[in-house]
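Our platform keeps sequence and structure together, in a single record for each protein. This encoding replaces a full spatial description with a residue-level series of whole-number codes. We quote a single record here, exactly as it is kept in our systems:
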Amino acid sequence: MNRILLVEDFAEIRSWLADLLREAFGEVNITEAATVAQAYSYLNTKSYDLIVLDLNLPDGTGVDILHRIKDQGSTAYCVVATAYDDDAHLIPALNAGADGYLLKDQPGEQLIRDLHGILNGSPPLSPPIARRIMRLAKQEPAKTLLVPLTSREEEVLTYIAKGLNRVEVGAVLGVSAHTITTHVRSIYSKLDISSRAEATVEAIRRGLIST
């Protein structure tokens, strides 16, 4: 996580988040943006390993930025950092491709732990958000709504939802990381998802992991 784009319109909060990112990842190169337009400008000229973005911005929303990132085919890890913990903000962010969702009112130590989990393949989700995602998953138990997956795809989905990265899943299943990448692409395409957080929701819905 050497190159980070931080999108937050309030200067004091932006500075605070930048300090948390340095505590989580060490000496990193942080580019700061205060608006959607500034974020677009940076995304058009640079690539990033991690993008941390607020949802409520002066000229648009973080969801707009997530859609731009997805359209560009960027591989950046995207984490929302916001004050909003309701479904109206959470679900669109996850659907737009957010890999994590953090609440800015959580203690700094908790946010650092959540961010540092990225290095271990764990989606950064504030505890209240993780609980909300589990409740959302329980609200959709109808098996008829589940897109069929092969047994191997279900295995891969289970391990991805548990926080393993693709190399680790490959080691567990005795196949190459490239093979796991192929399976993950197939799973994401079938389920119309684009992030580990959404994969976790699907795994819970299917009873592959416990809530």
Q: What stands out?
A: The chain has a mean pLDDT of 87. The chain has two domains: 3-136, 141-205. The CA atoms of residues 6 and 147 lie 36 Å apart.
